[in-house]
Amino acid sequence: QVQLVESGGGLVQPGGSLSLSCAATGSISRIDDMRWYRQAPGKERELVATITSGGSTNYAGSVKGRFTISRDNAKNTMFLQMNSLKPEDTAVYLCNADWLATLPTGEFVAAKGWGQGTRVAVSS
User: Which residues contact 97 (CB under 8 A, 6 or more apart)?
Assistant: First the structure.
């Protein structure tokens, strides 16, 4: 069983910074693409940033230049450094990943999943 666990959310003033983490645990053979999404109250879930296993990144236009996605493959962990935060960045941030897991039988299975989310609030 693979789990994704986010941490690092909180309350910050406009213009401030926060750093989020997403740790994947379990019988993981390989993690492929990892992503950060966010969902604000009353709005649809939005893709914020993507990072491949090789480190290639892509960002939503609304966060480009302010957010930085990164990962530590050795620790199966992804990060999101958020700078110059705005009130419109307020949302629950969720990590999402594609992985190859090892079953007790020794077989491999491809799967994807979500973390539980961490809340970010930007307000004065």
Answer: 4, 22, 24, 31, 32, 33, 34, 35, 78, 112, 113
Can you tell me the distance from the alpha carbon of 62 to that of 71, in angstroms, rounded to the nearest whole number?
A: 21
CB 60 within 8 A of CB 46: yes
pLDDT in tens, 99-109: 999 988 989 99
Question: Residue 23's pLDDT is what?
Answer: 97
Tell me the backbone φ, ψ of residue 73, rounded to 5 degrees: -65, -30
Query: What are the backbone dihedrals phi and psi of residue 74, each rounded to the nearest 5 degrees, phi first?
Result: -65, -30
Sign of the dihedral through C-alpha 12, 9, 110, 107:
positive
Residue 104 to residue 122: CA distance in whole angstroms: 44
Give pLDDT tens digits for 108-121. 999 999 999 999 99
Residue 91 confidence class, pLDDT cut points 50, 70, 90 = very high
Q: Report residue 21: phi and psi, to 5°.
A: -130, 150
